[in-house]
Amino acid sequence: MNYVFPPAPQASVAVHGSDDRLPVRRIFCVGRNYAAHAREMGKDPDRDPPFFFTKPADAVVESGEAVAYPPETENFHYEAELIAVIGTGGKNISEADSLSHVWGYAIGNDLTRRDLQLKAREQGRPWDFGKAFDRSAVIGPVFPISEIGHPEKGSITLTVNDDVKQAADLADLIWSVPEIISILSHSITLAPGDLIMTGTPAGVGQLQVGDVCIVSIDGLGSIETKITPRES
User: Fold this and answer.
1) Which CATH code, of 3.20.20.70, 3.40.50.2020, 3.30.300.30, 3.90.850.10, is assigned to 15-228?
2) Cα–Cα dist 232/46, whole Å
3) CB 164 within 8 A of CB 157
4) Which of 19, 55, 61, 208 has the most CB atoms around its CB within 10 Å?
5) Domain definitions of the chain by residue range
6) Which of 50, 12, 13 is nearest to 28 (CA)?
7) In sequence order, what are the beta bridge partners of 14?
8) Which among 25, 28, 24 is positioned nearest to 184, based on CA atoms?
9) Which Pfam families does this chain map to (predicted)?
10) Pair type for strands 155-160 and 163-169
């Protein structure tokens, strides 16, 4: 088979302690999955069914890489997240069986053009331009479950220039990782290489040119991103 132009390179992320790479198929994100963050976004934190949005696989940025301040925004935000990485696909997965489909876990930073997201929300339109733009998914090395197990609690923090902006515990998730996987799989068939960003704690805020943003999760280390000037 001949392609009319070369296919895009396979997006991938690092694997902790290995030279292997983990191919990224899709990136799913859970909205407002910490009660305090739901409140700061002006929403009720009651346990309504979770909702999801996506980012393209090629939005991945690795820890240590710089991210240029993105176009068409003046309100560029950070969001610290735990990521569950699917290793075994399936659909209609039971909550009890969900964790058997996880290959590992990583730290993420769901970069957001907040002004575009909020404008879309107000107009009842999709969030894509606020969430799914170029280089909007900072993803750290994936820790296999053989190393890390399944984190159910532990601190998740984010600093900007060494100032703590977000601080919470993974136990504060409204919807747990097993619940998220099960619910998502009843709507979309999951496959190896799917990444699920599980939501961010309260304390989201702006990033400026020159800022250094660090996200840390107990047992998973830290990831770092520097914000550089907007590209012309």
Assistant:
1) 3.90.850.10
2) 43
3) yes
4) 55
5) 15-228
6) 50
7) 21
8) 28
9) FAA_hydrolase
10) antiparallel
